[in-house]
């Protein structure tokens, strides 16, 4: 209700401010030549007519700053916009599929039931469109989500951009949509939600956006189409081959089919036009044929007269071509998945497309009373806000699926807080599908899942140390030899410890059941910890009053942290 109220506040203030009208049609900053400017001004006149009756809004200040940075960015890897749009489309499809678990009607009929993503190009008009049949956005969603309510990540990302300039991180800050302005100077978002009419959101990233009820485009049925009017210098995104390459590279693990409207050259037989025989070559051919036919029998002559003459020509046809294999990686046998595939899967899961591989991963099937599949990853770096309000916010980093259907990425009951630096997913065969979050929280198998996940997670971390040659002591000479060639693993545990050591220490305080396992993961302060533990046991066995023991123990741990 808060968010809604805020949206209403914003929109009340911002509808039709006069200066916004002046800005419409303005040329985005950073475009170079005079002829460019003139051309764009001319274009904007036709686009302005589309906006005549539209409601105008100003972007929230932080969003505007973010867009300025993007549009003026010299960042060379502009490819990232496509994976952000595909990822948003996939999220929207997940949402409608989830709703359909309890209400089949939401999917509608015919093509609307197809949960897919489509990419289309219009080379002449220089438009690239990405369409999904996901949940769509109501008018209010469009206003809130695309401009007036800045997400918490917006200012963090703006700050980060000022120091690092690495736009690749945009998806991790929850502002991926705006990366469209790396390649487009005018963007339309056409959207249809089951609860509202079809609307068009449009903006030239000049501080304002406009929304109108869509009465001119083809009805979408349900879902969203993003139309990018590409900048002149972004012409490469009108090449099918480029888009296919990008989908393969970044969106391989999207769990919905991605199609491209692809052209294909086919050979077609068409009747030859008899009157077309004026040129010399064809005349010569004809003469040859006549000579031939004179020497052939009369029967053959009759046959050839009956057959219509045809020639083979190349024709361009279009069809939807599937670009990805939708078999989920976690359903495959872990032995058949390559290291590179795990690394790529990790990158698409966490929207981190840097070159750094995860420090470790664990892919397993739990069998027995509670069946589930899981893939866990230790990221190469701690996120910027890992310990921000550690006790007050519920952060979930595991995605929960039930029988291949995405349920939630906000379900924080799967791992304890101190392990919330891990990324990954759990796909349960035991949890029921048609249930609310509250019922899931109380489900009896959840405890078992959590217990197994913790064990597997701690094993995975222990293995980082075991495989790290730097961790071997004099006693493990054989191991040192075994790993001495393995440069990849060298120093990995120190790296882990530097990034996530604090989480292990918090685990020592919070997770009594696994304290011994966690103690083996401690570094540097290990001996201090042992002495604390010893003193704890000493106090305990000498039956000194318990409150005193726990107070002195917590004091000791606090000092240690
Ligand atoms: N194709 C779409 N269908 C429905 N809603 C969408 C679509 N694209 C964007 N949105 C809405 O706009 C919001 C903003 O998108 P943006 O990419 O900036 O961030 P995000 O997707 O929330 O972040 P993250 O990538 O971390 O999930 C989304 O949260 C979603 O509500």
TrEMBL record:
Domain Histidine kinase/HSP90-like ATPase as annotated: residue spans: 77-234
Domain of life according to the entry: Eukaryota
Entry GO MF terms: ATP binding; ATP hydrolysis activity; ATP-dependent protein folding chaperone; unfolded protein binding
Gene3D superfamilies noted in UniProt: 3.30.230.80, Histidine kinase-like ATPase, C-terminal domain
PROSITE patterns named in the record: HSP90 (PS00298)
Binding-site residues, ATP: 84, 88, 132, 137, 145, 151-153, 172-177, 224, 437
Keywords linked to the UniProt accession: ATP-binding, Chaperone, Nucleotide-binding, Signal
SUPFAM superfamilies: ATPase domain of HSP90 chaperone/DNA topoisomerase II/histidine kinase (SSF55874), Ribosomal protein S5 domain 2-like (SSF54211)
Keyword Chaperone: yes
Region (Disordered), start-end ranges: 270-312
InterPro entries to which the protein is assigned, alphabetical: HATPase_C_sf, HATPase_dom, Heat_shock_protein_90_CS, Hsp90_fam, Hsp90_N, Ribosomal_Su5_D2-typ_SF
A Pfam entry, by short name: HATPase_c_3
Biased composition range(s): Acidic residues: 270-303
UniProt xrefs under NCBIfam families: PRK05218.1
Family: Belongs to the heat shock protein 90 family.
Name of the protein in its database record: Histidine kinase/HSP90-like ATPase domain-containing protein
